[in-house]
Design a protein that fits this description.
Blueprint (H helix, E strand, L loop, with lengths): L1 H18 L5 E7 L2 H10 L2 H5 L2 E7 L4 H9 L5 E6 H9 L5 E6 L1 E2 L3 E3 L14 E5 L2 H13 L4 E2 L13 E3 L5 E5 L13 E4 L1 H6 L4 H4 L2 E2 L11 E6 L6 H10 L2 H10 L5 E2 L12
Parallel strand pairs: 1-2, 1-3, 7-10, 7-11
Antiparallel strand pairs: 3-13, 4-13, 5-14, 6-11, 6-12, 8-9
Length: 278
């Protein structure tokens, strides 16, 4: 993977240099899922040309940990795919810490089912699939608590809580913990599942139309805000700082609204307002 990333970047630099004596600065952005579409649009946008910047988008396979590792090892300049809670969890288990340099959007998780049309139909002993990643699972459990299906402990950690923190489960729901990439596929085997919007979109699901329950987002759920991330040493890099402005340009926001049918809600606030560090 490292070799392919750097070969791609090197080609971009050579081409930029050939076309302009004052070669544009090139930033490599690693992304996943539907976010790749957004950053590929940004890379070809008028806004990026006006910023005198070249963006090389690297579509990452596998889970988000691999994307963060590539960023921590500086195989790429930044990544754009994760929310703050996910980053907190990664940082706890990594020697190299990542930091957000700009907020981008938030998107509600949804509860989906091939069996039910409303959350009120969930029954005694039903099975529900959730992810094994602690940051994802914690958020999923909060969604289920918001839906009135379970109660979590008073000291529940929204960044790394698990099913072990469930104090009340009146319907005796059976929790099936699987790789989050398999959640949508699991709908054929379980009664319902809690799925993040990016993965839902990849499976052809729209949270505003197909979910039987939608996560409520407010000031108490800042961990759900997605960000552009890089290594701490580059947090003040002026070139990287341009990326946030590019994402929030009118041209890009129009694309996001149309492409994702309103499921990605823009968040443009100072990082200091939502990030408390490690």
């Amino acid at each position: 993977m490292k070799k392919s990333i750097w070969i791609t970047s090197a080609i971009a630099l050579i081409l930029a240099g050939c076309g302009n004596a004052d070669a544009q600065e090139t930033v490599t952005v690693a992304s996943r899922g539907s976010d790749v579409d957004t950053w590929e649009f940004i890379a070809d946008s008028d806004a990026v040309k006006e910023a005198d910047l070249a963006i090389e988008v690297v579509s990452m396979e596998g889970d988000g940990v691999q994307t963060n590792q590539a960023t921590a090892e500086q195989e790429v300049d930044v990544n754009a795919f994760q929310n703050l809670s996910y980053m907190y969890t990664f940082n706890e288990n990594s020697d190299t810490k990542l930091v957000p340099i700009a907020t981008t959007y938030r998107e509600p998780m949804g509860v989906y089912s091939d069996k039910y049309e409303d959350i009120s139909e969930v029954s005694e002993g039903d099975s529900v699939s959730v992810g094994v990643n602690s940051a994802t699972q914690a958020r999923q459990l909060l969604v289920l608590q918001g839906a009135g299906l379970i109660t979590l402990s008073d000291d529940f950690d929204p960044d790394k809580g698990t099913v072990e923190d469930i104090t009340e489960n009146p319907l005796n729901l059976a929790f099936v913990q699987i790789d989050e990439l398999q959640l949508a596929r699991s709908l054929q085997d379980v009664d319902f599942s809690v799925i993040g919007n990016t993965l839902a979109l990849e499976a052809g699901l729209n949270v505003t139309k197909d979910a039987i329950y939608i996560e409520e987002l407010d000031e108490n759920t800042n961990g759900t805000i997605n960000v552009i991330a890089t290594v701490a040493d580059r947090a003040d890099d002026e070139t990287l700082q341009k990326l946030g402005d590019l994402y929030h340009s009118d041209e890009v926001q129009k694309f996001v609204a149309e492409e994702f049918e309103g499921t990605k809600i823009e968040v443009e606030v100072p990082v200091a307002d939502v990030w408390t560090g490690e």
